[in-house]
């Protein structure tokens, strides 16, 4: 039974990753300092193959000790959020995430020298394609197009340079994965979220799906959408992302390679909004919306080429937007009723 260390294990995507690892028979060590959501309960907390270490990823001594006893390292810890985060925490997203990735890689290099740690799997982001002029965006384009304008996108591109530099100098094996627009349950209001007016309600969270759902549930009519609504995204189910991430751990084609991890199906924000509206209000209530001024870094299109993951890893994200929303809407409905959103 291989052992995997996951940083950011109490986070949104981290929760899906840990669940998938345990389901596939891995032992898992999670490291999280609860900085985003505070202490949270997870379904796997009492699983005998799961150990949670409440600690700071920037503690290189702690991380080195833990990694020396692991076969894989999924480096997922980061300050992360949606579009409002890019502006509210422009400096912290750069500075803090650089400290996190540098400490993580320092520890991994030291642990790899001891012999057990096989590879680091780095969580990058679709935002490395922020400034692209070509769609769908394929692996390698991030080195040919202008660099991202947001500090978050720029730092995620830096994560990829860390991965390749650690291989070049220290022969630390890597896989780079770029998730696209994760959708699922388990995302709460972050402790540092700044409330932003959006019509007659506050933005609940910085990601579009939970935000639109809570607005409709609270009766907002017309529905307020950031920007024109023509922005195109590939909303990918958290369980699908986790499946692709875990699949890549021991797959020989993933060694020292990079992949977009995403659904092939894209939707505009306006399409998403109307789908949510219909699921909550039914087919007969007229869909009304209005556009609020968008954010500077709200990219018009993020469209991935998913051919490489399909051909080399045999991975496809198969969950439809309808199925994702059928899971997410009841979860957010309960959160609104509880007053947590």
Detail the topology: elements first, then pairings.
Layout: E1 3-7, H1 12-23, E2 27-32, E3 50-54, H2 60-67, E4 72-75, H3 83-88, H4 90-114, E5 119-123, H5 151-170, E6 174-179, E7 182-183, E8 197-198, E9 201-202, H6 208-217, E10 223-226, E11 232-233, E12 236-237, H7 238-249, E13 257-261, E14 267-268, H8 269-281, E15 289-292, H9 307-313, H10 321-338
Parallel strand pairs: 1-2, 1-4, 2-3, 4-5, 5-6, 6-13, 7-12, 10-15
Antiparallel strand pairs: 8-9, 11-14
Helix pairs in contact: 1-7, 2-4, 4-5, 6-8, 6-10, 8-10
Question: In short, what is this structure?
Answer:
The protein has helices spanning 12-23, 60-67, 83-88, 90-114, 151-170, 208-217, 238-249, 269-281, 307-313, 321-338, and strands at 3-7, 27-32, 50-54, 72-75, 119-123, 174-179, 182-183, 197-198, 201-202, 223-226, 232-233, 236-237, 257-261, 267-268, 289-292.
Task: Walk me through this protein's architecture.
With 341 residues, this protein is of the alpha/beta class. It is built from ten helices and 15 strands. The strands form five sheets. A seven-stranded parallel sheet has the order 3-2-1-4-5-6-13, sandwiched between helices. Strands 7-12 form a two-stranded parallel sheet. The termini are far apart. 49% of the residues are buried. The model is unreliable at 189-205 (pLDDT under 50).
Give, in spatial order, the strands making up the sheet with the most strands: 3-2-1-4-5-6-13
Coarse shape = globular
Write down the oligomeric state.
Answer: single chain
Distance between the termini: 39 Å
Over all CA atoms, what is the radius of gyration?
19 Å
* Helical residue percent band: 25-40%
Number of DSSP E strands: 15
* Beta-strand share of residues: 15-25%
**How is the biggest beta sheet arranged?**
7 strands, parallel
> Could you name the ranges where pLDDT drops below 50 across 5 or more consecutive residues?
189-205
- Average of per-residue pLDDT values: 92
Structural class determined from secondary elements = alpha/beta
Pattern of helices and strands: EHEEHEHHEHEEEEHEEEHEEHEHH
Total number of helical segments?
A: 10
Pfam families: Epimerase (PF01370)
Protein name: NAD(P)-dependent oxidoreductase
Organism: Herbiconiux aconitum
Family: Belongs to the NAD(P)-dependent epimerase/dehydratase family.
């Amino acid at each position: 039974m291989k052992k995997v260390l996951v940083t950011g294990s109490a986070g949104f995507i981290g929760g899906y990753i840990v669940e998938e690892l345990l389901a596939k028979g891995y032992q898992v060590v999670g490291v999280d300092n609860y900085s985003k959501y505070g202490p949270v309960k997870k379904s796997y907390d009492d699983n005998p193959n799961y150990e949670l270490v409440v600690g700071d990823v920037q503690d290189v001594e702690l991380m080195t000790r833990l990694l020396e006893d692991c076969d894989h390292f999924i480096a997922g810890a980061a300050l992360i959020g949606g579009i409002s985060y890019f502006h509210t925490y422009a400096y912290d997203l750069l500075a803090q995430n650089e400290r996190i990735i540098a400490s993580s890689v320092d520890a991994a290099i030291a642990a790899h020298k001891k012999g057990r740690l096989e590879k680091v799997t780095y969580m990058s982001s679709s935002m490395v394609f922020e400034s692209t002029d070509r769609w769908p965006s394929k692996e390698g384009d991030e080195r040919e197009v202008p660099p991202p304008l947001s500090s978050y996108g720029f730092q995620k591109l830096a994560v990829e340079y860390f991965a390749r530099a650690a291989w070049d100098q220290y022969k630390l094996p890597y896989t780079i994965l770029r998730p696209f627009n994760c959708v699922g349950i388990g995302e709460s209001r972050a402790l540092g979220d700044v409330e932003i007016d959006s019509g007659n309600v506050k933005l609940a969270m910085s990601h579009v799906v939970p935000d639109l759902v809570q607005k409709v549930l609270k009766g907002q009519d017309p529905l307020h959408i950031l920007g024109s609504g023509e922005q195109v995204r590939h909303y990918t189910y958290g369980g699908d992302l986790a499946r692709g991430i875990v699949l890549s751990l021991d797959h020989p084609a993933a060694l020292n390679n990079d992949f977009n991890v995403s659904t092939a199906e894209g939707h505009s924000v306006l399409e998403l909004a109307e789908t949510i509206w219909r699921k909550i209000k039914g087919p007969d209530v007229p869909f009304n919306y209005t556009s609020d001024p968008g954010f500077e870094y709200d990219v018009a299109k993020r469209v991935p080429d998913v051919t490489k993951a399909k051909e080399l890893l045999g991975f496809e994200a198969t969950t439809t937007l309808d199925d994702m929303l059928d899971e997410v809407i009841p979860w957010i409905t309960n959160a609104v009723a509880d007053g947590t959103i």
